[in-house]
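Morning - heme C inputs below, output right after.
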Amino acid sequence: MKKKYIAAFVCLVGLFSCEKATVEPINSTIISYHKDIEPIIEEHCIQCHSIGSTSIELYDYEHIAEIVESGQLAGSLNGDTNFVQMPTDHVLDDSSKSIIYLWINQGYQDN
Ligand code: HEC
């Protein structure tokens, strides 16, 4: 009898650990660079990545598009160990991250 309970418990734990913390896509809204992306960069990134930054510059669309193309922006946000994880002082919240991923997936337009 006891064995059954243990087996059931193990199954349950197994089930839950398989569930990944997925980020809900923000329906099919088209992400705007100016309305959605710029404010995130300004609040969380620009203090270290402004004009003349010794690392990369993220102060306008052209520079940001360059690091999207190189794969650095997604890599630096999503835990890819080939990239330095950003921001270095605190982790960007999941909703900001998913907005950025969605914008990249939508072709990172200057809209
Ligand atoms: C506290 C300062 C600071 C903040 C805030 C910050 N960065 Fe950085 N970032 C750096 C530094 C310093 C480097 C260069 C690290 C190195 O070369 O070792 C860097 C590197 C990067 C790189 C290159 C990563 C690579 O491995 O190629 C990207 C992309 C990047 N940052 C994006 C961002 C984004 C996006 C944000 C905002 C969400 C952000 N950073 C916020 C300091 C910062």
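Note: The chain is about 50% helix and 0% strand.

O.
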